[in-house]
C-alpha cells in the first residue's frame, strides 16, 4: 500500500539519512507509527512477512514515547533526579534507533529478495521467520541496553565499585564490553547505511526502463 511505502520512506529519512533526530522528525515518526499500527489492523492489509517487520518497526516508537514521558516526569523533579534515571531515557532512545535501523535493513533486504530472487526466497519470506527475526532483534538490543545501563551505573558509582576480586574483574569486563559495543554500534550504523543505499540503488535501476 502507498501509505506503508510513505511510512517506510519517512523512517528511512529519520534513521538512515538524518545525522541526528530532531523535534520535527520525531513528531512525524510518532504520528506515522500510530497511523501505521492502526492501518495494519485493517483487513485490507494482508498478513505477510513485510507487514510483520513494518508492524515491529512501528512498535519501536513506543520507546520514544516512554522516553519523552520519562523526561517530562524527571524534569518535574528538578535537580533531584538520579544519573541512572536520566540515563534510562537516553538508552530508550538508543534502543529505538538501533531496532529501527536493523528492521529497516531487513525490509530492504526482503525487497531485494522479492525483486531478484522471488521464487527461491519464498520459503524464507514467511510470517513465522519475520516474527522470529523481530524477536531476535529486540532481544539483542535489550541485552545491549542492559549492558550500557550496568556500565553507566558503574561509572556513576566510581570509587565505590570494587577493583579487586571476582566482582572487580566482572566490572572491568563489563566496562570493556560496553566500550567495544559502542564502537561496533557506530561502525554497524555506517555499514547499514551503505548496504541500504546499495540495495535500493540495485532495485531502482533494475526496475527502470532500459
TrEMBL record:
* Keyword annotations: G-protein coupled receptor, Glycoprotein, Membrane, Receptor, Transducer, Transmembrane, Transmembrane helix
| Primary site of residence | membrane
The molecule here is called LPAR6 protein
**What Pfam families has UniProt attached to this entry?**
7tm_1
TM spans (from-to): 12-40, 61-81, 87-112, 170-201
Its GO biological process terms? phospholipase C-activating G protein-coupled receptor signaling pathway; positive regulation of Rho protein signal transduction
Where is it located? Answer: Membrane
G-protein coupled receptors family 1 profile domain location, by residue?
A: 32-210
What membrane topology does this protein have? Multi-pass membrane protein
**GO CC, any one term:** plasma membrane
The gene behind this protein is Lpar6_0
Task: List, in alphabetical order, the Gene Ontology terms for molecular function in this entry.
Answer: G protein-coupled receptor activity
